[in-house]
Specification:
By secondary structure, the chain is α/β, with parallel strands linked by helices. The protein is 64% helix and 11% strand. It is a multi-pass membrane protein.
Length: 580
């Protein structure tokens, strides 16, 4: 069962927008100033057109008419230049803002507790980091500047109409009875519709990602058809979200289209009456019609981009919702080399399904403990609790007498490090992949240290054969790293991290049995003096351990040295017999 990552409130989105504008006050002011300049220049066009009409009707001089015509053309050119400059500044401003927020999002995502990320599923975080960031990027660079231009144009045009002819400007009021109630209704229903739609697309991305990642397992267990049905259901829900949103828009958009056509019709009727009664001249009426017509273009632009902006607001709520939790001050100093104490630990992924039932265990310094048992018994769950990735529902886990949950992350990783069978090769050089753990003295890893770590993990020969050695680029679009070698690189990183206690959860599962044994032998010297807790399905690992803990049904049913458990003829003896 997944738990969705939280959403930021609309208020938090507004605060983010204001804070961003304040942080980039100079760029934002320049962009806004250019938008105002473009609109002000555009307001001169209808005035010149009205004077031109009055000049022609009043039989003005040819020179005056020609000058007005030239001035009208100059205004159009200047307005086009100002709009281009404003849009350019808007794109630059948007790129800068999005670059900062991408970095902030990545930092916040990395600061999230691993348990929170795993409970939410990789798809939710992945969709926020990709499609939602892209939606926000598009809106900031394109939709927001265009809507800002449209808003400024409509406001200043309305003021110009009131100044030119207060009587004829009254025609703008005819749209209010239609415009206000429709927009109140729309703004009430659309935020939830957009949020629901984006959640469904996030679910679809999550299902697709999990299906692709687990394709071999699904095929081996004959679950391919079930995964396909799950994907189709997720797609249907995403399409339903799109249709629900479009149904609201189909009721909203026609009302807006009518609302800005009505004032033009009313202006024609009132203008005719005003001209007959001598209340307004033909040039004034022409100017007002030009203003009213000029308002339709920015309104159309606003309608065109408004959907993108609304989607971006929903996306921003998802992006800003990824925030590391506020926690109490963490312990930053704990004596290295102490043992681990597990006392009456209980844990469940959901409230109604407990996985571990009152486990107690003492692991002294330097011991090699193997944890074995049938699949689904809770072995990996126990390993996650020991490494502090998840917190127990009840009971305590202490390292050196300090509760694991109270340790700062960097301190905890120096004490206990979990290495699973899932490994990732990052896009970058071999040197960058190895140097992810920070040195305790804050310096840089030397080539000799990196090469020694590779040798400890059994990958020195492979690294020596790379075309550029430690500077060879790995990952997507570069030198491909097989799964087994990716595990060895992860082990080399562990050697560099130098943890006091290492929890190995099938960390050599992708290697064949012979290679795994050889690697474990080469690691023995490196791991000398460290506490090693190995969760293993290959029982030769258990045979070489100081003690073996057998986990069945979320409880430790046997604990002791290999030979004693074999002689006891209990669950461990039966596991060994079945494996042989």
């Amino acid at each position: 069962m997944t738990t969705r990552l939280p959403l930021a409130s609309r208020r938090e989105v507004r605060q983010w927008a204001r804070r961003t504008a304040a942080q980039h006050r100079r760029e934002f002011s320049l962009m806004l100033g250019l938008f105002f300049l473009a609109t002000l220049i555009g307001l001169a066009g209808p005035q010149l057109l009205g004077l031109l009409v009055d000049g022609v009707v009043g039989h003005g001089t040819t020179l005056r008419v020609d000058l007005l015509a030239v001035a009208f053309v100059v205004v159009l050119v200047l307005q086009a230049w100002a709009k281009k400059a404003a849009r350019l500044r808007g794109r630059v401003f948007g790129e800068r803002v999005l670059a900062e927020n991408r970095e902030r999002f990545v930092k916040n995502a990395l600061d999230l507790p691993l348990g929170t990320v795993e409970a939410a599923g990789t798809g939710d975080l992945l969709s926020r980091a990709t499609s939602d960031v892209s939606r926000l990027d598009h809106a900031v660079r394109f939709a927001a500047p265009e809507i800002l231009i449209a808003t400024v144009t409509v406001l200043l045009t309305t003021i110009a109409m009131i100044v030119t002819s207060p009587l004829l400007a009254l025609t703008l009021l005819v749209a209010i009875p239609l415009l206000v109630p429709v927009n109140i209704w729309y703004q009430r229903v659309i935020p939830k519709a957009f949020a629901w739609m984006l959640d469904r697309w996030g679910d679809l991305q999550s299902v697709t990602h999990e299906t692709v990642e687990g394709a071999r397992t699904a095929e081996a267990l004959s679950l391919t058809e079930r995964r396909l049905r799950t994907g189709h259901r997720a797609l249907d829900q995403a399409v339903l979200g799109e249709r629900r949103m479009r149904s609201y828009q189909l009721r909203w958009l026609p009302s807006l289209e009518i609302s800005y056509v009505l004032p033009i019709a009313a202006l024609l009727l009132l203008g005719l009456l005003a001209y007959q009664q001598g209340w307004a001249g033909l040039g004034t009426i022409t100017t007002m019609l030009a203003y009213a017509q000029a308002m339709t273009a920015p309104l159309n632009e606003a309608l065109f981009w408004l959907e993108d902006l609304q989607v971006a607001v929903a996306a921003a709520r998802r992006i800003l919702g990824v925030q590391p939790p506020e926690t109490a001050a963490k312990v930053t100093d704990v004596p290295r080399g102490r043992g681990i104490e597990v006392r009456d630990v209980r844990f469940g992924y959901t409230a109604d399904r407990e996985v571990l039932h009152g486990i107690s265990l003492s692991v002294p310094r330097g011991e090699r403990l193997a944890i074995v048992g049938p699949s689904g018994a809770g072995k990996s769950t126990l390993g996650r609790l020991l490494a502090g990735i998840s917190a127990p529902t009840a009971g305590t886990i202490q390292v050196g007498g300090t509760e694991v949950s109270t340790l700062a992350d960097d301190v905890l990783r120096g004490e206990v490090l979990l290495l699973t069978q899932e490994h990732h090769t990052f896009s970058g050089t071999l040197r960058e992949n190895l140097a992810l753990p920070a040195r305790r003295d804050g310096g840089d890893w030397t080539d000799e240290e990196l090469t020694a770590a590779l040798a400890s993990a059994g990958a020195a020969e492979w690294a020596a054969g790379l075309p550029d050695g430690l500077d060879t680029k790995l990952g997507s679009g570069a030198y491909a790293v097989p799964a087994g070698l990716a595990q060895q690189l992860a082990l080399a990183r562990v050697v560099l991290a130098d943890p006091h206690t290492l929890v190995l959860d099938e960390a050599t599962s992708l290697l064949d049995t012979g290679s795994a044994r050889e690697l474990e032998r080469s690691l023995n010297a490196v791991l000398e003096g460290r506490t090693v807790i190995a969760i293993a399905h290959r029982l030769h690992t258990a045979a070489a351990a100081d003690r073996v803990a057998v986990v069945e049904g979320g409880q430790i049913t046997e604990l002791g040295p290999h030979q004693e458990l074999i002689a006891a003829g209990g669950p461990y003896s039966r596991l060994v017999e079945a494996a042989s």
